[in-house]
Amino acid sequence: MQKIAVITDFDGTLMEQNVGGVLMEGLDVLDEPQVPLASRLFREKKVGSLAWIEAAYPMLAGRQEQVDKLIESVHLRDGARDFIDFCQQIDVSVTVEISCCL
Q1: Residue 41 in 3-state DSSP?
Q2: pTM of the predicted model as reported, rounded to 2 decimal places
Q3: How far apart are CA 9 and CA 28, in angstroms?
Q4: In which element (H, E) is residue 5 found?
Q5: How far apart are CA 13 and CA 19, in angstroms?
Q6: Is the Cβ–Cβ distance between 72 and 23 less than 8 Å?
Q7: Distance CA 102, CA 100 (A)
Q8: In this predicted model, what pLDDT tens digit does every residue of 40-83 receive, in sequence order?
Q9: How far apart are CA 30 and CA 39, in angstroms?
Q10: Do 96 and 9 contact (CB within 8 A), yes or no?
């Protein structure tokens, strides 16, 4: 018998908000000069998502308290927890794909 698995998105699917966007906007990471450049190059398909990650995510270093405070403002979408619990009960693997770029 073939095993079933679920692959889902995180931002805007399981979560009501785009969590990365909330963090990047809330902590003014998007205002750092290298981030808009990396975003533009990614949208133009001149660089991959790793270049954007390397430009943006280091701006979160040393800001755990601020990140935690912002994370309190994001919420699971209605039914997401029930869906994940259901999958676990019937032994269906759930893989969450996390989008990284704005």
Answers
A1: helix
A2: 0.69
A3: 24
A4: strand 5-9
A5: 11
A6: no
A7: 7
A8: 998 999 998 889 889 998 999 999 999 999 989 889 899 999 99
A9: 9
A10: yes
Place of tokens 């790793």: 50
C-alpha–C-alpha distance, residues 8 and 21, integer Å = 18
**Would you report the helix, strand and coil content of the chain in percent, each value rounded to 5?**
55, 10, 35
* Token pair 């997401």: residue: 80
Nearest alpha carbon to residue 9 among 102, 79, 101, 96: 96
Tokens representing 45 are 């398909």
What's the pLDDT tens digit per position in 5-49? Answer: 998 887 778 888 888 888 889 999 989 999 999 989 989 999 988
Which residue type, as a one-letter code, is found at position 7? I
**At 8, which helix (H) or strand (E)?**
strand 5-9
